[in-house]
């Protein structure tokens, strides 16, 4: 099968591994990877590479991401989300929109964030979430992330000492939305966790264009996928031949771009002095 990207709108309860396994059966290939996981509780966009499409994932996984989420204040859980056990409770009924807005404002921009302990970060060679499930206490180091936008999208809902509200977040790769919910709760002294999470965008890829696993799958060609990440430049025969043979080319362009051969994606090329060199190549499309 020719390489492609597949956008999947993951449903709740599925792990990202479940999605990969299901898609392997649908697409008839073992070679499938993803550009970032989602927790089982979460829904929304997964970008998956099929066959040679996996070569493009490295250029997508670090892209900015957008989420919609629901945050509850008044309860903290050991996973910082609704799947965890409640470890702290406090009356949050005195809090209003102004309190929430002030904390959201403090979390915009370049911040230092301690990831949730129930994350895929490795500690001494083991996933943090595996260590937590085994009963170990895990303390992860803070890391810099960027919150480009973080704002309320609903009224504040009060219920028996708890409050909930909906938000949208545009953030750099590596940001944990669960940690944002946790940190708002800590700052206000009442505890907080994530009740719902939906990823709506990864870079220029949007969940509105995604397929669901129990419906028709609509793969993106490599050219259409690359178009969402890089400028496209058609290469001539000499340039294409040199790229396939691992040589540098003079492209008359600046920056990283996707090089095409007769309309098909041949390579992703990056600057190398006054020339360009290939980062990945799809040699199967070249014939001359």
TrEMBL record:
Organism, scientific name: Aquiluna borgnonia
Keyword terms: Isomerase, tRNA processing
EC code: 5.4.99.25
Ranges of residues in domain tRNA pseudouridine synthase II TruB subfamily 2 C-terminal: 230-283
Domain Pseudouridine synthase II N-terminal intervals: 24-177
GO molecular function term, any single one: RNA binding
Keyword Isomerase: yes
GO terms of biological process kind: mRNA pseudouridine synthesis; tRNA pseudouridine synthesis
Pfam families, sorted: TruB_C (PF09142), TruB_C_2 (PF16198), TruB_N (PF01509)
Enzyme class name: isomerase
Family per record: Belongs to the pseudouridine synthase TruB family. Type 1 subfamily.
NCBIfam families: TruB (TIGR00431)
Domain tRNA pseudouridylate synthase B C-terminal: 178-210
Descriptive protein name: tRNA pseudouridine synthase B
Phylogenetic lineage: Bacteria, Bacillati, Actinomycetota, Actinomycetes, Micrococcales
Catalytic activity reported: uridine(55) in tRNA = pseudouridine(55) in tRNA
Residues forming the catalytic site: 39 (nucleophile)
Gene: truB
């Amino acid at each position: 099968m020719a390489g492609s990207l597949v956008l999947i709108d993951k449903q709740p309860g599925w792990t990202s591994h479940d999605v990969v396994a299901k898609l392997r059966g649908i697409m008839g290939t073992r070679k499938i990877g993803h550009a970032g996981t989602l927790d089982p509780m979460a829904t929304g966009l997964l970008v998956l590479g099929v066959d040679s499409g996996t070569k493009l994932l490295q250029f997508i996984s670090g892209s900015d991401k957008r989420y919609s989420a629901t945050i509850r204040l008044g309860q903290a859980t050991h996973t910082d989300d609704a799947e965890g056990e409640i470890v702290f409770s406090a009356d949050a009924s005195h809090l209003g929109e102004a309190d929430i807005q002030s904390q959201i404002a403090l979390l915009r921009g370049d911040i230092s964030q301690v990831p949730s302990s129930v994350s895929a970060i490795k500690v001494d060679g083991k996933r943090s979430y595996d260590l937590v499930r085994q009963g170990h206490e895990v303390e992860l180091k803070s890391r810099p992330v960027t919150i480009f936008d973080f704002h309320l999208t609903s009224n504040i809902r009060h219920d028996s000492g708890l409050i909930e509200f909906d938000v949208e977040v545009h953030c750099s790769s590596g940001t944990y939305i669960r940690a944002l919910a946790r940190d708002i709760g800590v700052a206000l002294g009442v505890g907080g966790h994530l009740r719902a999470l939906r990823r709506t965008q990864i870079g220029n890829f949007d969940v509105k264009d995604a397929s669901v696993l129990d419906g028709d799958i609509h793969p993106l060609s490599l050219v259409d996928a690359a178009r969402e990440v890089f400028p496209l430049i058609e290469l001539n025969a000499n340039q294409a031949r040199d790229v396939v043979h691992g040589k540098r080319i003079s492209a008359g362009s600046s920056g990283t771009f996707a090089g095409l051969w007769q309309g098909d994606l041949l390579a992703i090329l990056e600057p190398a002095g006054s020339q360009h060199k290939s980062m990945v190549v799809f040699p199967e499309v070249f014939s001359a």
